[in-house]
Amino acid sequence: MALVRWFVWLIYILVALGLTAFGLYFGFENATAVSPKILGYSLPEINLGFWLVAFLILGLLIGMLLGLVNMFATRTRIRSLSNQLDKAQQELRLVRQQRLGDS
User: Fold this and answer.
1) What is the pTM of this model?
2) Which parts form a coiled-coil structure per UniProt (predicted)?
3) Nearest C-alpha neighbor of 21 from the set 9, 29, 33
4) Are 32 and 49 in contact (CB under 8 A)?
5) Torsions phi, psi of 90, nearest 5?
6) Residue 54: how many other CB atoms lie within 10 Å
7) 36-51: per-residue pLDDT in tens?
8) How far apart are CA 40 and CA 4, in angstroms?
């Protein structure tokens, strides 16, 4: 099991290094300076590769935050359903005990 974990970490590290190398290459190949405008506000003039990577990271972070909101809502729903199930099982045990006592 430890070997599998080690192998998975090795793959993660290799993928991270590959993506970092790709990002550096991408940044150097897109060295044209641009000044994007967002809602009428002009951002500083920096190379295109930086802006593309920066907005990609921003989009990933926003997506992760939205995923966290969904995850917490799902956990709350699961906890609520688990409590309902526990109550129903307790009631079922009580009914079975009463029924056995009546016999």
Assistant:
1) 0.58
2) 71-98
3) 29
4) no
5) -65, -45
6) 13
7) 888 888 888 888 888 8
8) 51
